[in-house]
Amino acid sequence: MSFDEFKKERMEDKIKILKPYLPSIMFSQGFNTIYTKISDGIHNLNEDECSKMFLALKMGIEEILTEKIEMNEKNKFFSD
After folding, report:
1. How many other C-beta atoms are found inside a 10 Å radius of the C-beta of residue 24?
2. pTM for the full predicted model
3. Among 60, 35, 27, 62, which Cα is nearest to 70's?
4. What are the pLDDT digits (tens) for 14-51?
5. What is the rounded distance in angstroms from the CA atom of residue 59 to the CA atom of residue 56?
6. How far apart are CA 57 and CA 76, in angstroms?
7. Is 26 exposed, middle or buried (0-12, 13-18, 19+ CB in 10 A)?
8. DSSP reduced 3-state for 20
Protein backbone atom coordinates (compact mmCIF):
# COMPACT_ATOMS: atom_id res chain seq x y z
CA MET A 1 0.00 0.00 0.00
CA SER A 2 1.38 3.38 -0.92
CA PHE A 3 1.42 6.34 1.46
CA ASP A 4 -1.13 8.15 -0.73
CA GLU A 5 -3.47 5.15 -0.51
CA PHE A 6 -2.94 4.98 3.25
CA LYS A 7 -3.82 8.67 3.66
CA LYS A 8 -7.19 8.04 1.99
CA GLU A 9 -8.16 5.33 4.48
CA ARG A 10 -10.57 6.06 7.33
CA MET A 11 -8.89 6.43 10.73
CA GLU A 12 -10.34 3.12 11.93
CA ASP A 13 -8.78 1.32 8.96
CA LYS A 14 -5.45 3.12 9.39
CA ILE A 15 -5.31 1.85 12.97
CA LYS A 16 -5.98 -1.72 11.83
CA ILE A 17 -3.19 -1.44 9.27
CA LEU A 18 -0.73 -0.06 11.83
CA LYS A 19 -1.72 -2.34 14.74
CA PRO A 20 1.20 -4.79 14.27
CA TYR A 21 3.64 -1.88 14.62
CA LEU A 22 2.07 -0.13 17.62
CA PRO A 23 2.57 -0.95 21.31
CA SER A 24 -0.05 -3.33 22.71
CA ILE A 25 -0.96 -0.93 25.53
CA MET A 26 -2.62 1.29 22.95
CA PHE A 27 -5.19 -1.43 22.43
CA SER A 28 -5.40 -2.95 25.91
CA GLN A 29 -6.22 0.50 27.32
CA GLY A 30 -8.64 1.26 24.51
CA PHE A 31 -7.07 3.10 21.62
CA ASN A 32 -10.45 4.50 20.62
CA THR A 33 -10.65 6.20 24.02
CA ILE A 34 -7.25 7.86 23.53
CA TYR A 35 -8.08 8.85 19.97
CA THR A 36 -11.49 10.21 20.98
CA LYS A 37 -10.02 12.38 23.76
CA ILE A 38 -7.37 13.84 21.48
CA SER A 39 -9.92 14.40 18.73
CA ASP A 40 -12.28 16.11 21.20
CA GLY A 41 -9.43 18.39 22.27
CA ILE A 42 -8.78 19.39 18.69
CA HIS A 43 -12.37 19.81 17.59
CA ASN A 44 -14.65 20.41 20.55
CA LEU A 45 -13.05 21.34 23.85
CA ASN A 46 -11.96 24.71 25.13
CA GLU A 47 -8.51 25.38 26.57
CA ASP A 48 -9.53 24.72 30.20
CA GLU A 49 -11.06 21.35 29.30
CA CYS A 50 -7.93 20.39 27.33
CA SER A 51 -5.70 21.41 30.24
CA LYS A 52 -7.62 19.06 32.54
CA MET A 53 -6.98 16.13 30.15
CA PHE A 54 -3.33 16.97 29.53
CA LEU A 55 -1.72 15.02 32.38
CA ALA A 56 -3.64 11.80 31.69
CA LEU A 57 -2.84 11.96 27.97
CA LYS A 58 0.82 12.80 28.66
CA MET A 59 1.11 9.80 30.97
CA GLY A 60 -0.51 7.59 28.36
CA ILE A 61 1.91 8.76 25.67
CA GLU A 62 4.86 8.21 28.01
CA GLU A 63 3.66 4.67 28.73
CA ILE A 64 3.36 3.96 25.01
CA LEU A 65 6.88 5.25 24.40
CA THR A 66 8.27 3.25 27.33
CA GLU A 67 6.72 0.07 25.95
CA LYS A 68 8.11 0.83 22.50
CA ILE A 69 11.63 1.33 23.93
CA GLU A 70 11.33 -1.94 25.87
CA MET A 71 10.21 -3.76 22.71
CA ASN A 72 13.18 -2.35 20.79
CA GLU A 73 15.62 -3.37 23.54
CA LYS A 74 14.15 -6.87 23.67
CA ASN A 75 14.36 -7.25 19.89
CA LYS A 76 17.94 -5.96 19.94
CA PHE A 77 18.90 -8.45 22.66
CA PHE A 78 17.44 -11.41 20.81
CA SER A 79 18.87 -10.40 17.44
CA ASP A 80 22.47 -10.25 18.73
Report:
1. 11
2. 0.53
3. 62
4. 878 888 877 676 666 566 667 777 777 778 888 888 88
5. 5
6. 29
7. buried
8. helix
